[in-house]
Amino acid sequence: MFKQFSPEFGHEFRYFKGSSGGGGGGGSGAVSYPAYIEAIHADWLNNTGADTISESITDIMDDALGNSPWTTQLAYDPDTDITAMIASGTMLQTLVTLLSTGTGLDTLVEDILDHTRVDLAVTEYEADLDARLTTEVLPRFRAGMRDINAVTSSAFVIGAALIEVGQDRQAAMFSANLHMKAFSDDAIKVINLKLEYQRAATAAIAEIYRMKIVAKKEENESAMKIDESDALWDLEVFQHGANLLAAAGGGTMQPGGKEPSTAQSMIGGAMSGAAMGAMVAGASQGAIGGPAGMIGGALLGAASALL
Questions:
Q1: What is the pLDDT, as a whole number, of residue 5?
Q2: Cβ–Cβ < 8 Å for 45, 38
Q3: Is the pTM of this model over 0.85?
Q4: Which of 23, 211, 252, 286 is the most buried (most CB within 10 A)?
Q5: Phi-psi region for residue 128, left (φ > 0), alpha (ψ -120 to 50) or beta?
Q6: Which pLDDT belongs to residue 168?
Q7: 229: how many CB neighbours lie within 10 A of its CB?
Q8: Could you tell me which residues come within 8 angstroms of residue 298 by beta carbon, excluding any fewer than 6 positions away?
Q9: 304/264 Cα distance (integer angstroms)
């Protein structure tokens, strides 16, 4: 054993040379290590000579050949779930259709736009004006004219006529405003509501079919990877034997991957994004805002799946 002090590092280096119990290379090129390392290595490797391999690589290869675990593996079939999602979307569309036909929104819109209903309201308003004219307005007018001794004058006749004309004008204005309101306010709100529900149903159905396309694509890719792994199984068994033979010369090779890719699913990313989008939109826009947020979130989720 040789010692050498290194002033640069401030401590002593020790190293072994030769085969006299130390590490390093001897004159013949052989390398040895400290005895305690060799003892532990020997113990860990074969329990100080007590352990031996009971089977050869040939036996292990024979057992493995033709017994690929991929033979019984099948890609996940999403057809049942897809059918359920499509049925759900179809039911939603059915409900929207029922809501907008028959006694639903269409009937409500027609009722709002029904001129007969508006005209009836106008007639009732005119009847109320006539009753007030007879019992309140004209009696007060006549009393005032009597006070100034003008009941028999032309001013009395003209004044009564102007009062009746003003009443007719008031009734006409009421009729015009009521007809306009039926078109501009209530009807538009109901129509927009119908369109919003239809848009939500259409977006949901479109998203379901998009997921169907992605799911079937992933199923096909998974099936192809399983088939590939099964076909390469026996070849990879021989690769292990080849590695054993090549180990003596230090040349080995690792076989390819044995499992289908575990990259994030496009569907998983889309669904996570859809859930987050629906929660955000639902909180800010109410229940009807959910589908819009769901579609936007799904697009973001699908994009994140590609990262």
A1: 43
A2: no
A3: no
A4: 211
A5: alpha
A6: 86
A7: 20
A8: 207, 210, 270, 271, 273, 274, 277
A9: 9
| Tokens found for residue 142 | 């006549």
Q: What residues contact 174, with CB distance under 8 A and at least 6 apart? A: 122, 125
Nearest by Cα to 240 from 256, 260, 261, 259: 256
d(CA 178, CA 45) in angstroms, rounded, equals: 98
How do residues 133-183 score in pLDDT, each as one tens digit? 888 888 888 888 777 876 667 777 788 888 888 888 888 888 888 877 767
State how far the Cα of 64 lies from the Cα of 69, in Å rounded to an integer: 10
Q: Could you give the CA distance from residue 9 to residue 117 in angstroms, rounded to a whole number?
A: 104
Lookup result for tokens 């939109």: 281
What integer best gives the mean pLDDT of the chain? 74
Q: Can you give the length of the chain in residues?
A: 307
Task: Provide the token pair at 112.
Answer: 């709002």
Six-digit token string for 301: 């989720």
Six token digits for residue 298: 């799904």
Q: Which residue has the tokens 């991957």?
A: 257
The span from the first CA to the last CA of the chain, in angstroms, equals: 57
> What confidence score (pLDDT) does residue 8 get?
44
pLDDT tens, 252-271?
A: 666 655 554 544 566 655 55
User: Rounded to an integer, what distance in angstroms lies between the CA atom of residue 67 and that of residue 71?
Assistant: 8
Contact 13, 6 (CB under 8 A): yes
Residue 120 — pLDDT band, cuts 50, 70, 90?
Answer: confident
